[in-house]
Amino acid sequence: MSRTPSGRHRPVSSLLVTTRNARFQQWQSYLTNRAKRTKAGRFLIQGVRPLNLAMEHDWPIESLLHRIDGPPLSDWARDLLASRSVEQVGVSAELMAELGEKTTTAPELIAVAKTRAPRLKDLRLQSAPLIVVFDRPTSPGNLGTLVRSANAFGADAVVVVGHGADPFDPQSVRASTGSLFAMPVVTVSSVDDILAFRDARRTSGTDLHIVGTDETGSVTIDSHDFGGGTVLVIGNETRGMSAAWREACDTVVNIPIGGAASSLGAPSAGAVALYEIARQRR
User: Fold this and answer.
1) Domains and their CATH numbers in the chain
2) Taking the complete model, does pTM exceed 0.85, yes or no?
3) What is the pLDDT of residues 69-105, one digit of tens each?
4) How far apart are CA 24 and CA 17, in angstroms?
5) Taking the alpha carbons of 183, 48, 102, 16 in that order, is the dihedral positive or negative?
6) CA geometry: angle at 93 spanning 91 and 97, to 5°?
7) Where in this chain does the record put each tRNA/rRNA methyltransferase SpoU type domain (predicted)?
8) Where do the H-state alpha helices sit in the chain?
9) Which residues of the chain have pLDDT under 70?
C-alpha cells in the first residue's frame, strides 16, 4: 500500500482502469444487460451491507474494484481489500461512480462476482420447510425486496418461476440488502418444476402444502395453519397468480385490508404473509 499525505495507506493495484476501455465496458454491461450477465456468469455488488454479506457467506468474488482518487479509503474498505486474495483493480472515481450508479459520490468498493444457480433438488430444508415462490416477477426491485423479507422471516429459499426478473440485476441485489447472499434463490421454468419437487419430497417423507395468496382467496391468512411444510406463492405484480398456479394450490388465502386500497403490492403481500407464518411458528 502507498501512504497518503494524511498518513493513511492506499491499496496498490497492479491493474488500473482510468478510461472506458474494454474491461470497463464489460463491467458496465452487467448493470443493464441481462444477456451479458448470464453469458459471463458475472454481476456487480454495490453497497456496504451487500458487500459485507457476500464476504460473510463466502460468495465467489472475481475482482474487487476500488476508487483510486478522491479521499483515502475508509478502514472498512482497506480491511476488506486486505482480507480477500482476489484480483484488485484501481478505478478512477468518475468510472466508479458510473459503476455504482451514483450521481454524486463515487463508491469506495464494488465487487465483480460470479453468479450461482442453485437447484431445487440440492436445497437443504428444515423439518417444516418454508419456500417462497414468486410467479413471473416483473420488477427486479420487488424481487430483491421479497428475498429480503423471506430471509428476515426464516424462509429456506426463494424460487423465481418463469421468465421473470433477474435476481442478479443490480436493483434486485440492492433491494435484497445482501439477503441474496444469505439464502438460496432458485430459478425454474414453470409450476411443473415445483410440483415435481413437492412430489419428490413427499416420497421422501416431507409434506409440502402449496398456499397461494390472492385477494379472492377463500381463507383469511390468519385462519390457515402454517405449521407444516409450506410453499408460499406470490403472484405477478400486475396479473397475480397464473391459472396453472391457482390449480396447483392446495389453499388460496387472502389478506384482509381496509382503506381505499384495492390490494397490496406483491412484495408487501409477501412480507405480511411471511410475518404471519413466522408468528405462528414461534
Assistant:
1) 2-114 (3.30.1330.30), 120-281 (3.40.1280.10)
2) yes
3) 989 999 999 999 999 999 999 999 999 999 999 888 9
4) 7
5) negative
6) 100
7) 130-275
8) 22-32, 34-40, 48-56, 75-83, 93-99, 140-152, 170-175, 191-203, 243-248, 266-281
9) 1-14
